[in-house]
Specification:
Layout lengths: L1 H12 L8 H33 L8 H16 L2 H12 L4 H8 L3 H21 L4
Length: about 130
């Protein structure tokens, strides 16, 4: 309901007149917001399922690789969700930027920006831990 009220306030602030039937308008806006929320939730579930299907079984590959993998996993855990999501989709799922943007429903420029910021933060983290 807060989002519906906010939309009504934004509408008034922009100079547009109030809807003739506020309760009907509010019902439509609430319905649209609920559908958007469910779509986003389904999209997140699909991404999770896709990542789970791409996960490969772990195998021993030496102590150095294990330490690096652990450090990268810790670094990924410290990233904000949005940055971690695009980083995993790009480098673990090997999806191109356009596919990531389509999958998440965000512009390609946002994907690129989040990737750049996430890679930089992860690089700093790995250097701080003296892993790389």
């Amino acid at each position: 309901m807060q989002q519906v009220r906010l939309r009504l306030l934004e509408r008034a602030a922009s100079g547009r007149e109030a809807p003739r039937d506020v309760s009907a308008w509010a019902a439509v806006v609430a319905s649209n917001l609920a559908m958007d929320w469910h779509r986003a939730r389904r999209r997140q579930e699909r991404v999770g399922e896709r990542l789970a299907s791409l996960r490969q079984p772990a195998h021993d590959s030496g102590e150095d690789t294990s330490l690096l993998s652990l450090a990268v996993a810790r670094g990924l855990d410290q990233l904000p969700d949005a940055q971690r999501q695009v980083l995993v989709l790009r480098f673990y799922a090997d999806l191109p930027v356009r596919s990531i943007a389509d999958e998440l429903g965000i512009p390609e420029g946002t994907v690129k920006s989040r990737l750049h910021t996430a890679v930089r933060a992860l690089r700093v983290r790995l250097h701080e831990d003296e892993v790389v």
